[in-house]
Amino acid sequence: MAERRSGAAEGLARLSEWADAHLSLLRVTGLVGRTSKFTSALDIPVEFVEKNVKLRGKLHHITEKGLEVEHIPISIPFITSIQRKWQSKGLLLVRLAGVELAPSGTAWLQQELKPKQTIWFQLLGREDLALECLVLVNKGRFLSMCLNEEILRQGLGRTARIEGLHHDSRLYWKIHKRLLRAELKALKKNKGIWKEESYSERIRDRISNNKFVQTLKQFVSWLRSSIQR
Q: How far is it, in rounded angstroms, from Cα 198 to Cα 190?
């Protein structure tokens, strides 16, 4: 009986040593943070934001404030099963960095994205409880689409300051140029908010705004009221 207990104790000791060794390795490589489930923007380490780490998540809701996403951590046998026991529930608020969404842009996202769809979001900054990110969705086996650029390419928003990144940093201008090029394509094709009025609409507006026409309308209105008296 004593031998069985000593054997069990030895097994637990070895398991503990194995866990300690692997956890040490994970701490060095930064994987412990990636295996943790983040339920709030404040849970995410500052290092992750500074290094622009890319995380995976499951889309839940699309609102005017941004995308509500459930973080999906990296799964590692044994460690993940232990962590699940104390993980809390919550959704991250993810915003499209560098994009000022038009109402039509929010509607487009609601039509384009599916509930529970898996997305990737690269951390660029954090403001209060929101994350400023580049958001990517898979469009096939080897293709992905950046929602930040696609919104601008469709003319469903305008470029804006990328919150969280230093304005004079190389990464800021690299991303900002990409967004400006996408916006320029929509502008050249008159798409979305950049769609110009037709020629007949412009002529009609000019006529309605003409002072002579306005004066004539006022005279006709006065004449009608005089006749009715």
A: 11
